[in-house]
Amino acid sequence: MTSPTPSLNITGNAIEVRKLTVDYGARRILSNIDLDIPSGKVSVIMGGSGTGKSTLLRCILGLKLPTSGSIHMLGTDITTATTAQLYQLRKQTGVAFQGGALFSSMSVAENIQLALREHTNLDESTIQIMTRIKLDMVDMLHAEHLMPSELSGGMTKRAALARAIIMDPKLLFFDEPSAGLDPSTSAELDELILLLRDSLKMTIVVVTHELESAFKIADQISIMGKGIILATGTPEEIRASADPEVQGLLHRKPRETVVDTEAHLKALVGETS
Amino acid sequence: MIKALEKLGTEVLDGLEMAGRTCNLLLLTLWQMLQPPYRFYPIVRQMYFIGARSISLIIISGVTIGMVLGLQFYYILARFGSVNLLGQGVALGVIRELGPVMTALMVVGRAGSAITAELGIMRTTSQIDALECMAISPGKFMVGPKVIAGILSVPLLTHIFDFVALFGGYFVGVVMFSVPEGSYMNGMVDAVQWVDVRLGLVKSLIFGLLVTLICCAQGYYMHLTKAGSQGAEGVSFVTTNAVVLSSIAVLFSDFLIGALLP
Ligand SMILES: Nc1ncnc2c1ncn2[C@@H]1O[C@H](COP(=O)(O)OP(=O)(O)O)[C@@H](O)[C@H]1O
Ligand SMILES: [Mg+2]
Description:
The complex is a heterodimer. Chain A has two domains: about 10-90 and about 170-180 and about 195-273, P-loop containing nucleotide triphosphate hydrolases (Rossmann fold); about 100-170, no CATH class. Chain A is built from ten helices and ten strands. Chain A has helices at about 55-60, 85-90, 110-120, 125-135, 155-165, 185-200, 210-215, 235-240, 245-250, 260-270; strands at about 15-25, 25-40, 40-45, 70-75, 75, 95, 170-175, 205-210, 220-225, 230-235. In chain A, the strands form two sheets. Chain A has a six-stranded mixed β-sheet with strand order 6-7-8-3-9-10, with helices on both faces. A four-stranded antiparallel β-sheet of chain A has the order 2-1-4-5, with helices on one face. The termini of chain A are far apart. The relative contact order of chain A is 0.15. Chain B is mainly α. Chain B has one domain (about 1-260). The chains are: A alpha/beta, B mainly alpha. Chains A and B meet through helix 2 and helix 3 of A and helix 4 and helix 5 of B. The complex binds adenosine-5'-diphosphate and magnesium ion. Magnesium ion binds next to helix 1 of chain A.
């Protein structure tokens, strides 16, 4: 490896996003975002749907190139990294996608084992044992041999999480873990995230729009508005924030009320004034 | 009028862009396949899917085409009183032309469309992103085995097609129309030379590459096209596209190879 990868101390930042701007075609999705993700903590990115949370995550994962700005992950700038450097980083990263993204032609167990089979030379019985340990952590042992199409929404999320942590990554990303889950499953997932932080010292980034779960697990919360970060801080700091938009989100207020009724009606019928 | 020209222009540009991406996918996959570790099982699996499961289709279409060819050549040659050339006509037509082309078109319909649909669905449901995030190259894991299996399977299928088509021609000529067996067999053996076999082989190798590569690229790069944001409808769109494009590629390159290689 040619990359200088300084090992960061516990108090450092695992990820540093600077002046990140992202466009899809002509549409600006993120503008000038600055964000620090502290090592060994749970950071929650919260915001309404369509504010660009998943897009921010895709940029951090190197799946989408930003228009401008930099993203340092474990000391490497992923916007300029070589493929080899990127793959080196990704071996230390686990991702659970919003829809699960389980490989539909493989069983749950095969999905979870894939990274082990590709990146290690472990023997078959060790692979089986490690698979079962992770499946047990997410309470999915009974579903080992099921195919992804046979899983419910909650089971899919838990299988995706098991797949994300199979290599014991330093960094774990979780997009919308509790969206669409029943309250008890969602609470179990929250517990699991805290367990991973405490026992394996993982740096965890959770994207969510669920208030309750966010305040339960977060060491740091970032609130996103349309394409920008409105505020970042500890849960207490966020609660005390004076920003009206942050307070609106916290108290589940509808977005700003329509001022010009006539203009709004015109927009609805497709007239522009 | 201007609108129509504009539309034509964007279509052409889109087409060129896709052609560039397809070449890019080839180079990318080639590069990734050269990196260790080397895995052979995925290639065998794809050969089973692309090759083995197409055999019955190839046999049925091969026999049919051979019989049709035997029939038509018999009527034509009978006009000139030279039915003893039947064996040569069928053999050369099948080995040089119809064997490779028909086999490739069958593979497009049976395996190519499935390849595009599979990769397209993997793209729309983030499965390809998931592979990337697990530090597994999608080119090596998904595309490479399919393309290599295509390059190996299409020539093998072509040989099966050739064999059963010659049998179909034999059946029509010798059994139905009582062309003397000796003249049919000897004509066939004398007429077919190494260059004919070589032409068929070169064609089928290139068709195998073209078909699997184009079908892979249509699914793999689906997110970069208009179809990318259309979910299931987008997958069906790129699948149709892949079938049309790879069929045209087969027919056009068939002409090119025929013109360049005597
Ligand atoms: N592949 C894409 N192409 C074009 N626009 C996209 C794409 N993905 C997301 N967007 C747009 O980016 C914005 C933010 O999307 P997203 O990051 O998924 O939001 P969130 O995850 O916060 O709900 C949305 O307006 C969405 O329409
Ligand atoms: Mg999202």
